[in-house]
Amino acid sequence: MKLFAHFRVANICAMLAMTWVIGYQVTVARCESQKAAAAIGSKRVEALIAAMSIDEKLGQLTQRPGGMRTDDNPEVAHAKREDLKREVREGKVGSFLGAFGAEYINDLQRVAVEESKHGIPLIIGNDIIHGCRTIFPIPLAEAASWDPALVERSAHIAAVEAAAMGTHWTFAPMVDICRDPRWGRVAEGNGEDPYLGSIIAAARVRGFQGDDLKASDSLLACAKHFAAYGAPEGGRDYNTVDISMATLFEVHLPPFRAAVDAGVGTMMSAFNEINGVPATANRFIMTEVLRSQWGFDGFVVSDWTAVTELVAHGYARDDAHAAALAIDAGVDMDMTSQAYRTHLAKAIDDGHLDIRTIDDAVRRVLKTKESIGLFDDPYTDPELHKKVILCDEHRGVARESARRSMVLLKNDGNVLPLKPGIKKIALIGPLADNQRDMLGTWAAIGKAEDVVTIRTGMGAAVGDEVAINFEIGCQIEGGDVAGIQKAVEVARASDMAIVVVGETAGMSGEASCRSNIDLPGHQLELVKAIHATGKPMVVLVASGRPLAIPWVAEHVPTIVQIWHPGVEAGHAVADVLFGKVNPSAKLPITIPRNVGQVPIYYAHKQTGRPPSDSFFTSKYSDVPWTPLYPFGFGLSYTKFGYSKMKLSQVKMKPGESITASATITNTGDVAGEEIVQLYIRDLVGSRTRPVKQLRGFKRVSLAPGESKTITFTLTESDLAYWDSNFEFKAEPGKFVVSIGPNSVDGMSTDFELIAE
Ligand code: BGC
Q1: Structural domain boundaries of the chain?
Q2: pLDDT at residue 37, rounded to an integer
Q3: CB atoms within 10 A of CB 549
Q4: Residue 518: CB within 6 Å of ligand 1?
Q5: Which helix (H) or strand (E) holds 84?
């Protein structure tokens, strides 16, 4: 009874604190409520709003699938497209998704512009996630490059190709922070860290949108999924998100804020609920935070049927209620559910909804259409795509991006790069001569036939000088083990073996969550059998998520995480294996030893009993408390030494900045690039702080024997966080600064932030 009473008091306190925080946020927001309303549009936009009927307005807020499903027979498909054109002619649709090809899109556009009453052009959105036809490595892999300029370039190429195919708008970047590799969509994001995630998010926005949204090679971007979609309970897609306001603001919102600051034109509301209120009906995040506090002035689209899913959530009584809740929360466009155009006119007639709410949403959509130049130039040159799609330049960047994202996890005895003198290589595994799975999830209009497999890429690199003897060994999933023996024979007859294992493209991505993150099927047996031959051996892991590979990590001397590398997979792998490129990528997410360690991430709290050899501490008794490979980890073919760490001062006053520097030396025999990382730790806070937080990184290129001093500047805002009063500020006290090659190793020193 006493315990129960105590529990209730604690809960009530927590609820009060939360109410206070929300109350505080809302008060701030209400004072600025003017900002949340869509500011007045151009004369054209205002004239259109004045002239449109309610149904036509709701049409602008309606997005429909583009009628391109190939499983219909031609007659049915034709009839469906004619129906869609009729809807456009009647002003019932403002946008399509999943429509590809300049000719088809121009055809729909002609109906909108020339045959509908107001001639408002359509905006066509598509999932251009990591390339259009030239498929780049999956986003998680690109994040491993820690190279925002390269990420920006690949996003720009995706924009060039997609725009040439008639697309105006991409549902990317996905900026959800994810600390759970079971979640299939971890492949689409930038990993576990809000700092790295924010930098990559902004780079992708810049890459897609460019400097001029009206340019023919620009794609309107959409930061998704707002918000906290990457934190579902148990890593199960669409599942409940129940997190503190502090975690929401510190971990999950920063990349969205970075996207807004980079000028992202649209946002997508998430499927999940956040602490009891589904994101798609969450006025607090969708309007108060996004518009009032951050000043976002683009429009928000719901996720696919997320509006009517409010009913299944148990948040709306029916579709009509759902539509009213979503638009009132700040979701301007309804992706595919049709609830807006079906129900909102009645809500206005009945006095349940203010027409100004609809007008604001329409204004945002029309202003966006205007901002990307659709009113002036609604059509796409149907010849353009022939010049750009999958051109050599694009393939070149895809190759660069892939090799820069491959993480060297282990290289005992320097098996890599492969040495001259090797005459026969056994190339083994279900992903070694595989085209489809190299593309990864969400491969837009990418085609398996475009992919250079690892077998082909290696063959091209060695010509006739080295024999590449391929044997599949086993399938990725299921299948029999008969092939393993054949693979063993091939390995025995070769000088060394390269074994490519991992996941299919479909094992990650939307709804593709896994309760087990070991190597699927019989692949570990295959690796063990090849290892037993005693031949020198390399394992390449091709996957959309971190996989738990403790046996491989312990026994196999050389491991490279290659992710799903895209169309240039084979060339990029060959570049890394033969040393044309020295790997420099670093993990954007922790690799656990087993699924039971999840969630495991570097920026965890210390707890009152941090893990140690002592018994009563926070750890599992059946597995070490450390991860298999920590965040930020990645090796090179050379070695780097860290020395002479210095701070510019030991005390810092508010408003001042402090510099931290260290000397990095290439102590090996070949040139290489190192990504030098800076972490801070706030030792005492009015709320407890993580044991480390990334606050800077720099790439340094060093010849053998060369040293360079790398300097970082820390300002007060780098030290700030949402304190116990939910104010974003730095608290006086001691801060530890670490500079190192990953989130575990490196040198540390400290300074004190003193009160004025
Ligand atoms: C996904 C979004 C995607 C949309 C349109 C949804 O199921 O969650 O990320 O943009 O479909 O394809």
Answers
A1: 394-597, 640-753
A2: 65
A3: 29
A4: no
A5: helix 74-89
